[in-house]
Amino acid sequence: MKLRHFVPFVALILASQAHAAVGYFGNFYVVTTLNGGGNVFNQVTSPANNTNNAGGGFGLTGDGVNPALSSFGTINLAAAGSLVLNGFEMNTFNDSGDSVNTASLFYRVTKSGDTPGAFSSIVDNSPNSVSGNNKFWQITNAGINLTNGLSNGNYTINFYVQNNASFTGGGGGTFIMNNWNSTSGPSATFTVIPEPSSAALGLVGAAMLLRRRRF
């Protein structure tokens, strides 16, 4: 577990009948591995005083230890380059006997000019630690290769966070960090060059040309 500097914030959601009190504090991180390296905790800093889960955006700033979520640069698939999504890290709280039961990161990858598709998710059903009313969630080994099978081009990764909770007043439901959704959540970009098939064809063509020149 890496040590990080947390910037406190509060994001509450209040259920009208159950008087629920659940939400987030600290920073949120997207965990990735680039080109076979080690895990990197890409930081998303949420705004202070974001009450009632009413939105308010987010800040893509580093904490002096970890980089901000931004661009992953150019990934050369022909040279075994890759971008792997390994998980996320977040902190939640639950008061008044309510409970946060799961934490999920939703993500999708879209090529520039294409219509965005459906989101996939990484779900954590058990917190790594519990301290009083606070829970720490972290997944760092999901191993999802976001660049697998992609063609040359520019891509955007969209994210949002969702949690499931149960309330002492009865029932339960989901709540979403800062009301992020498919269009308002944080994102990152990367560029793919060249796709392995194109690179292989190029090498074959070059070899044939050299062979012809020898005769």
Structural write-up:
The strands form two sheets. Strands 1, 2, 3, 5, 8, 9 and 10 form a seven-stranded antiparallel sheet that branches. Strands 4, 6, 7, 11, 12 and 13 form a six-stranded mixed sheet that branches. The protein has one helix and 13 strands; from the N terminus they run βββββββββββββα. 30% of the residues are buried. It is elongated, with a radius of gyration of 21 Å. It is mainly beta and 215 residues long.
Main features:
215 residues; mainly beta; seven-stranded antiparallel sheet; 1 helix
Structure summary:
The chain has 215 residues and is mainly beta. The chain has one helix at 196-214, and strands at 11-13, 21-34, 40-44, 71-76, 83-95, 99-111, 120-124, 129-131, 134-139, 144-145, 153-166, 172-176, 187-193.
Shape: elongated
Helix content: under 10%
Structural class: mainly beta
Largest sheet: 7 strands, antiparallel
Q: State the helix count.
A: 1
Overall residue-averaged pLDDT value: 78
N→C terminal distance? 62 Å
Strand content: 35-45%
Low-confidence stretches: 5-20, 47-57, 198-210
How many individual β-strands?
A: 13
N-to-C series of helices and strands: EEEEEEEEEEEEEH
Radius of gyration: 21 Å
What is the number of independent domains? 1
